[in-house]
Automatic annotation (TrEMBL):
Gene3D superfamilies, sorted: 1.20.5.170
Residue ranges constituting the BZIP domain according to the UniProt record: 33-85
Biological process, per Gene Ontology: positive regulation of DNA-templated transcription
SUPFAM superfamilies to which the protein is assigned, alphabetical: Leucine zipper domain
UniProt protein name: BZIP domain-containing protein
Molecular function GO terms recorded: DNA-binding transcription factor activity; protein heterodimerization activity; transcription cis-regulatory region binding
Residues covered by region (Disordered): 26-56
Predominant subcellular localization, coarse grouping: nucleus
Location in the cell: Nucleus
Length: 142
């Protein structure tokens, strides 16, 4: 990167021609050259500002390029990690699905067992009530 003290060949040429035109202007040229000289200086300053804008724009683009490269590198690393983990996760997912089916089957069997136990319990209670009523009838003759 160039420091503010260093000049490139184009800037050196511009300064020399500016000095040359100043010498010509001061050496007795007529008043008709003043507007031309002022316009020339204005054009050079405008060109210099344009080059500075272009340089700043180029620096901004380089900064954006570096940021995008960094982001791209980060995303590639993340993609590689996910691609590495994917088979393991798919295998684990398959295993969990199988385990889920087994647990649902066990739950269904337990629910059926509870229903059967409840039915037996109801039958036992009904039987007990029947026995008590029969005993009562037999005992008291009602």
């Amino acid at each position: 990167m160039m420091t503010s003290c260093e000049l490139n060949p184009g800037e050196i040429h511009e300064m020399l021609s500016l000095l040359q035109s100043d010498l010509n202007f001061n050496s007795g040229s007529g008043s008709s050259d003043q507007p031309r000289h002022a316009r020339m200086i204005s054009n050079r300053e405008s060109a210099k500002r344009s080059r500075q804008r272009k340089k700043r724009h180029l620096e901004e683009l380089n900064h954006q390029l570096n940021q995008l490269r960094h982001t791209n590198r980060h995303l590639k690393n993340r993609l590689n990690l996910l691609q590495y983990q994917c088979p393991t996760i798919l295998k684990e997912n398959h295993h969990l699905g199988y385990e889920c089916i087994l647990l649902q089957s066990k739950l269904s069997a337990l629910c059926q067992l509870l229903v059967n136990m409840h039915a037996v319990s109801m039958d036992v209670n009904h039987l007990a009530d029947y026995c008590v009523s029969e005993l009562y009838v037999t005992t008291f003759g009602l």
